[in-house]
Amino acid sequence: MTHLRKPCALVAVVAATLGATLAVKDASAQVLIDQVVEDSWRFTAGLGVFSRPKYPGSGDTDVVALPLVSANFGRYFIGGTPGAGLPFGVGATLFQNENWRAGVALGGELSKPRSASDARILAGWGDIPATALGSAFAAYSIDWLTLRGFVVTDIGGKDQGTRVAFDIEGKYRFDEKLTFTAGPGVTWADGKYSQTFFGVNGVQSFVSGLAPYAAGSGVNTVRFSIGAQYRLNAQWGLGASVTAAWLQGDAKDSPITEKKSQNTYGLFASYSF
Fold this sequence. Notes:
The chain is α+β, with helices and mostly antiparallel strands. The protein has a single domain (5-272), classed as Lipocalin. It has helices at residues 5-22, 27-36, 191-198, 202-208, 249-253, and strands at 41-53, 61-73, 76-81, 86-96, 100-108, 132-142, 145-154, 162-173, 178-189, 218-231, 236-247, 264-272. Strands 1-2-3-4-5-6-7-8-9-10-11-12 form a twelve-stranded antiparallel barrel. A hairpin with a 3-residue loop joins strand 4 (86-96) and strand 5. The longest helix has 18 residues, at 5-22. The chain is globular.
C-alpha cells in the first residue's frame, strides 16, 4: 500500500533540486550559461539494441533495435532526451553551469507501452496507447558524482499519470577513451499510473477472471545501473548498459505482474558531428 513519507520525500528532493536551480537569476549565472551552452548545431546518430521486458511487470522480453538520433542547438534539443525520462522529445535547458543543469521537455514513447497481445492474461483488455508526456528535469554533477531527477507526467489524457525518479551515478574514467558508470535509482508513481499499468478494473476482471485490484501510488521501482562507454575517436563511440530493476509495493503485488525483477540490457554505437 501507499507509504506517504517515501513519495513525499522523493518529490521534495526533486522539487528542491529544481527550485534551487531555477532560483539562480543573477548576472554571473547568465554569463555561465552563455559560456557553457554555445549557439551551434551538434548532431548524434546511432543505433541501439536492447533486451527489455515486453511491458511493466512482464515475464517475457523483447529484443528491439532503436535509432539513437539527437540534435542540439545551444540550449535547445530534439531527439533522445537522457535524464528527462522521455525516449524521444524536444526541449530546452533552462539553466546550466559547471555543476547544474535543469530544463523541460515534451515528447513520448515511440511505441505502445503495452498491447493486449503481449500476454494471454491481457486478451480482451485493449492496448495501453502511446501518449504525449511532459517532463521537468535537473542534474547536479561534481567530480565523479552526478545526482539527477525528473518529473514526467501524461499530458495526452491517456490515464498514465505522473512519475518521479531520482538517480545517483558514479563515474570512473579508466583512461581517456574508456569510462564506467554505476549507481542506484528509485521511481515513485501516482495512483493513475499504477492503476493503468498494474490495476484490474471491473471490465478487465470480468474478461480475465482475475479479482479486481486497485493499485495505488507509492514507490514503484528500485534499480541499479551499470554502464560503459568507449570512445573510438572524436566522432565514434560504443557503449553497453545493464539495469537491474525490482518492482515495489502495489506494482510488485499486482496479479498482472509475472516477474518482479525487470532487467534491461543494451548495446549501442553512435556518431557525433
